[in-house]
Design a protein that fits this description.
Strand order of the largest sheet: 4-3-2-1-5-6
Largest sheet: 6 strands, mixed
Shape: elongated
Radius of gyration: 22 Å
Number of strands: 17
CATH architecture of the largest domain: Alpha-Beta Complex
Number of domains: 2
CATH topology of the largest domain: Creatine Amidinohydrolase
Distance between the termini: 28 Å
CATH class of the largest domain: Alpha Beta
Strand content: 15-25%
Oligomer: single chain
């Protein structure tokens, strides 16, 4: 749909990102960074084609593309884009553009596979390889006006998908049937299908659509909700359970548009819910409102987590807040952008302070064994006056 289209990344936008990375390199005394992780590569070059972005601490970056060069050259506004046949020729490509071999070379060591790290050790034999991943993630945590606009469009997609749930929800339909119908609609709006996560071993297909007691089934994923999923191999998400009346139906979906994500959870019900579930939902909405006022620039992300846990305990929901048992999730929100798990994390002990134009998915939820899940999740922009929601669907339970 044309309403969910956005402009390409401009040379000016990209230049600002490169400049911030170069300042970080200078502050750390690192001569250059080699960007290879797909999301970081897109962030700094505006293309996701397979290649290597070399960013010196001063001067023009060099994008060296393995596949597909012609496409990358069309997509990226960077001035220096060259074709390369093998990573072993990286030093030669740098030398041909007047770039000396760096004494200290920054790499994304939080995600770089060990065998590739050893390969780079052999290729850059005179360089010391150091980690630059934290600096990259901090740069990406604060969004530009262009990025905020992209996330607003993704949030609009979330709201459109949410509005479609009531039209498709039927008793006796399996979770997977409803999920397939909603996901098809999301694709028609431009959903890219891929939901990228940085944490090793984490993966997600659109999100979680779960009903009744099955929604409270835990999984390996770093998420308060899990679900049985369609198989033991998948181990999360919608399964073959049939949707029934008088149970909470959780739709926790990510809308991914033009690379950028919006995270969004709403609760639906065919019929009525118990007073306990209704009260739990209202408690989560109250926690959300309290946090929206308190989460301002300068506040430590861990302090927001502590506030939310304290509020849940005061309301009598400490046992079920964000999970059950020893392995409950120790976060209550997360940064979001090109990936689902960006800085900052509203997590226990986190010292990172909020900054204006960070974008946070705030998700107070109750996981009640034997009954299901209630709660809320909205994507918010950090402003001087607190959190401003970008997802705008009604927060209350939708009864059908």
């Amino acid at each position: 749909m044309s309403e969910l289209k956005t402009q390409d990344i401009s040379a000016t936008e990209l230049g600002g990102r490169i400049e911030r990375l170069q300042l970080a390199l200078q502050e750390k005394g690192i001569d250059a960074a080699l960007i290879v992780q797909k999301t970081d590569l897109f962030y700094f070059s505006a293309t996701s084609q397979q290649g290597y972005l070399y960013v010196p601490d001063v001067g023009q970056p060099l994008l060296m593309v393995f596949k597909d060069f012609d496409r990358a050259r069309r997509e990226s506004p960077l001035e220096q884009v060259v074709s390369i046949g093998s990573p072993r020729t990286l030093p030669d490509a740098l030398a041909s553009h007047g770039l000396a071999s760096p004494a200290l070379l920054g790499l994304e060591l939080d995600v770089l596979p060990a065998n590739i790290y050893f390969q780079y050790q052999n290729i850059f034999e005179t360089s010391e390889l150091v980690d630059i991943s934290t600096e990259i993630r901090l740069i990406r945590a604060v969004k530009s006006d262009y990025e905020i606009d992209c996330i607003k469009l993704a949030a609009r997609g979330s709201d459109l998908v949410c509005a479609r749930v009531g039209e498709l929800l039927e008793e006796g339909k399996t979770e997977l049937e409803l999920a397939g119908e909603l996901e098809s609609y999301a694709r028609s709006l431009g959903h890219q299908g891929i939901v990228r996560m940085r944490l090793w071993g984490s993966e997600m297909f659109y999100g979680h659509l779960l009903s009744g007691a099955d929604a409270a089934v835990p999984s390996y994923l770093a998420s308060p909700t899990g679900g049985k999923g369609p198989s033991r191999c998948t181990g999360q998400g919608a399964g073959f359970k049939k949707i029934q009346r008088n149970e909470p139906i959780l739709v926790d979906y990510v809308f991914a548009l033009n690379g950028y994500l919006s995270d969004h959870t709403r609760i639906f019900c065919l019929g009525e819910l118990s007073d306990q579930l209704r009260a739990g939902q209202e408690a989560m909405l109250d926690i959300q409102e309290r946090v929206k006022e308190q989460a301002r620039p300068g506040v430590a992300s861990g302090d927001i987590y502590a506030l939310m846990v304290s509020l849940a305990e005061q309301k009598g929901y400490g046992e079920w807040f964000m999970g059950v048992g020893k392995r409950r999730i120790r976060f209550t929100g997360h940064g979001i952008g090109l990936e689902l798990d960006e800085f900052p994390f509203l997590a226990k002990g986190q010292k990172l302070k909020l900054e204006k134009n960070m974008v946070i998915a705030l998700e107070p939820k109750l996981i009640i064994p034997g009954q299901g899940v209630v709660g809320i999740e909205n994507t918010h922009q950090v402003t001087e006056s607190g959190l401003v929601p970008l997802t705008l669907s009604p927060d209350s339970i939708t009864f059908i």
